[in-house]
Amino acid sequence: MCQVDEDYHEPLQRAEVPSVSKKCVKCKEGTAAVVIRAGDAFCRGCFKEYFIHKFRAVLGKHRVLYPGEKVLLAVSGGPSSCSMLSQVQEGLSENAHKKLRFLPGIVFIDEGGAVGRSVEDRRRTAAELQAVFKATGFPFLVVPLEQVLDLPSSVVAAAASPSERAAGAYKAAVGHFIQSEGVGVTLEREETAAADVQESSTHLLQQLIGSATTLTAREDLLNTLRQHLLVHTARTEGYSKVMLGDTCTRLAVKLLSSISLGRGAQLAQDTGFSDSRYGDITLVRPMRDYSAKEIAYYNRMFCVPSVFIPSLDTKTADKSSIQRLTESFVTRLQADFPSTVSTIYRTSEKLQTCKSSSTADHCDRCLLCMCALDTAAENASAFQATLISEQLSQTKAPGATSAAIPRQNPAPLEPEFTAATGQCCSSGGGEDCGKAVGGAGCCSCATGPESTGLRSLLCYSCQLTIRDMSSVERLPHYILSEAQRRQRRSQMREEIGEFLLDEGD
Known about the structure:
The protein is α/β, with parallel strands linked by helices. It has helices spanning about 45-60, 80-90, 110-115, 120-135, 170-180, 200-210, 215-235, 250-260, 265-270, 290-300, 320-335, 340-350, 355-360, 380-395, 450-455, 460-465, 475-495; strands spanning about 35, 40, 70-75, 105-110, 140-145, 190, 240-245, 275, 280-285. A seven-stranded mixed beta sheet has the order 6-5-4-3-7-9-8, sandwiched between helices. Strands 1-2 form a two-stranded antiparallel sheet.
């Protein structure tokens, strides 16, 4: 209790904060060179051993990559994918303790055309990455994103997945690979540099990306096109697996942003270790146990080269897109609470894909992301309520005109409700197409019958992306042709539905 005559002039004593040990927590001898988390201080040698062991452990735990299998490494030039390339190179070296047994190849998707980079900058970046790829000795491909405009429609048609292998198939494959190793399994070195891209193709790609009115939709659309091109490249070059460089930090951001974008049903495939939505091609994420901090330390300490390439969200504000806002939120929260990323990441590990999603029919998959459709909801659901509200907001009263309804702002509320040319499709001939009356929309409008039929083939999240596009006619031909094929098939099924037998019969 305070007293009147008590003396308060004594100096205050600061409580001593326990400092991190200067010795390595593993070998107890070396001087700590890096502190990953509080109490986890490693010397240089132990940190390298810990980093390499984590990469080998995640591959050995899941046993997805079989010996002798061709694996395509998707390298974007960033720190994570370049670190993944370094780990594969380390695991295939002669001095490796547990040598990796798959056959790697490298692919780089040049997205400079979508971002608006000049031809000189794109060539300079490709030359820097080619120097890195040649040093590894692996075959590599440099593919411009403009090639996505000429893909076949089979890209968005799920191929037959390989049959499940027996329990002892992995050990048998290892034994067979070891026996054949004496004969010599060589990896042909093929170098395919970036082909000259026509200016018209770059212009069409920029129009496609620019047709999305929001940065959120542009990033989502670019990610979808990139994944389609990766899968097509893997199929044409004979690869059965594609390695992605998604880190724990990136997956934590992706989980929260995917929920915000309505991709809750696809979280297990978007953030899991393996993703088999494309059937014959499996996407794997071996870097998902690494944080961005660990990769930055490793690349700096062991001189792993990387190339900075600007993207759509480079130098943008935090609130420019949902993905950018989520990234800013997670990174700032991680600075004050170091367990934020790991907590979100551990939550994603518990997610699983339902059997109906993994074995869904080809026509029951989304046309863009190739995940199972999540739009088959009951009438009394939030999804149906959203659709009804959207339909009512687009419907006009019969006989009503724009002049009969006074509005304070004559400009259109949404750019997607306007034709791509800013007027009716047949207004050049002095006539109206007649579809604008009654709320049907102009035939060249993004919300016209073509867009409505296309959106019925998409999941909820991809529907939001298409809704933010000014015109669906700018989509690549392989997507539109596959959409028409599915619509014709669905219409034919409805016509002969009375003569079809149920599955139970």
